Amino acid sequence: MDRVAATTLVVAAGAAVAAQGPFNGAMARHVGIWPAALVSFVVGGLILIVVCTFAGGFGGLGSITSAPWWAFLGGATGVAIVSAVIVGIGPLGAAGVTAATIGGQLAASVVIDRYGLFGMRASPLTAGKIIGIVLLAVGVWLIVRDR
């Protein structure tokens, strides 16, 4: 996939993330925080079963034991993210939750890239990256403070 297509896909995913908080927040108002997170993952899991069934099967799962231990943390971080968004959507709103999520993602991503964590190729910490994080932090503050 080229950069334009990848960027378009990820921007669309970002738009979906903005909608996911209100969806899960509405579910939480009906069933509670943890059951809402469970519903989110069950629905997602069912969709993935259908996708895997029609798009190449489950053959790669045979190599699951060769994955590093930390690769299994994706599910745990997913639970933490979805649950935090469900809790934060009321007080912060969709824009506040999305801004704070993006701020946290960028700050953590810069550290991950800087040290080459989790199999990523190491990338230097530059002045531009630091300025970007600071500007994003200011943006998060501006969005969250007016809620």
From TrEMBL:
GO CC terms in record: plasma membrane
Positions in coiled-coil regions: none
Keyword match Transmembrane: yes
Transmembrane stretches, start-end: 34-55, 67-86, 92-112, 124-144
Entry keyword set: Membrane, Transmembrane, Transmembrane helix
One Pfam family linked to the record: DMT_YdcZ
Entry keyword Transmembrane helix: yes
InterPro entries: YdcZ
Protein name per its UniProtKB record: Unannotated protein
Organism for this UniProt entry: freshwater metagenome
Source species taxonomy: unclassified sequences, metagenomes, ecological metagenomes
